[in-house]
Write a structure and sequence with these properties.
Bound molecules: calcium ion
Mean pLDDT: 88
Radius of gyration: 15 Å
Helix content: 55-70%
Oligomer: single chain
Number of strands: 0
Distance between the termini: 36 Å
Structural class: mainly alpha
CATH architecture: Orthogonal Bundle
CATH superfamily: EF-hand
Largest sheet: none
Number of domains: 1
Order of helices and strands: HHHH
Strand content: under 5%
CATH topology: Recoverin, domain 1
């Protein structure tokens, strides 16, 4: 949790408001921390993800909005890993 918080702060202060993450900062964060997220073929993935996270529609991600992304991402990875695990058990 400490690491998540310090990397949030690091990226939030790159541009504009040092307390919030804009689209450029979000892109830099994803590039640095979860590059596999960018392997999607959808060129608007980040924009769409950001729009769905930006609950108050102010164009920036406050820490609560940002951490809901991290939570969703962790849950999705966990589900994906569990599927792989189940398949490997079935396959043996
Ligand atoms: Ca910022
Ligand atoms: Ca917002």
């Amino acid at each position: 949790m400490e690491d998540l918080l310090s990397s949030y702060r690091k990226f939030a202060k790159m541009e504009g408001n040092p307390e919030t993450i804009n689209l450029n900062e979000f892109r830099e964060y994803v590039k640095a921390e979860i590059p596999t997220y960018l392997e999607s073929k959808d060129p608007h993935l980040l924009e769409n993800t950001m729009a769905s996270l930006d609950v108050d529609k102010d164009g920036e991600l406050q820490y609560k909005e940002f951490f809901s992304f991290i939570t969703q991402y962790i849950v999705a990875s966990y589900n994906a890993n569990n599927k792989v695990h189940r398949y490997s058990i079935n396959g043996s």
